[in-house]
Amino acid sequence: MTMSFEKVLGQSRSKRFLQQVARTGHLPHALLFSGMEGIGKTALAFEFAKLVNCPEFDGLDACDRCASCRKADSGHHPDLLWVRSDGMFIKVDQIRELRRQTRFRPFEGRRRVIILADAQNLREEAGNALLKLLEEPPDRHLFILTVLEPQMLLPTIVSRCCHVRLQPLEDEIIRDHLVARLDIPAPVARDVTRLCGGSLERARWLTEDGRLAHWKEILETVQRLRRLSFFDLFDLTARWALKKEDLEQDLECIKLWVRDLVLCRLSDSEASTFDLDDDLRRIARNLDAEDLFFLYDMIEQALQRFRLNANRQLTVEGVCLAIKDILNGQGSRNTLS
Fold first, then answer.
1. 10, 91, 167, 173: which has the highest count of C-beta atoms within 10 A?
2. CA distance 8 to 36
């Protein structure tokens, strides 16, 4: 029988830390799980919540058999509360309702656990309300926040949490999961694993019809940017920005490609996510590494701006112009406007 923590792929270091904390019995009042999308932050938060209230906890894992574990799995545990985005954001009324519920002691378990998923979606007023709750934490309550990056939260919220940084999943873990669980052919699983950047969620997304071929087309387009006229580049970005779906995933693809350029620039290794052509490898080895780091950070900023409903066309134009300039050796260390 698969035990509770075993259901979460990878993350052995974070699991060991959480097991050690649970064994001591001295839990912090708030945990912050951070890391990229699709690596198991919410799943690990849920399994740890089960472990905290499992009467059969053996020092390593929840039993997955007792009444407490079964209630948690069925979504009916009175001491496990979820706070998720209402639409695009987590709103202040949700935090006010949470504050009302935390006035009560746990009904059945040792602690009441509140999982606040995707905390980067907290609106400013909601973030301030949560901060007040964390400043005066209720007795026998544990808050678990998940977030993409800690800097997307108020620094004062981060400072009141015990931070657990989750890592991208290892290639072997993702590849084996795709083959054994999703029945993906081994050659396709290998290609998808190289492209997903350690995110199981993205790997699953790439196995859908046409996704893998689409990403390869994106890379071919990006590698042509250095030769495009400004007119053609602006025409391309205008059409690209009209995409309502998958634009963020496209930028994730480009970010992985930039990472390959960095690896190519800093080492003689041929290992890379994408099959860079010889011409691009030669160009990459002559680029300023700081320009490539800047470009990587710029794409990260663009992804954050998308989540805040920034102007998509201007954001994509900025990224593509920077790629064109940097590949042509002109540099482009301007901040996004």
1. 10
2. 15
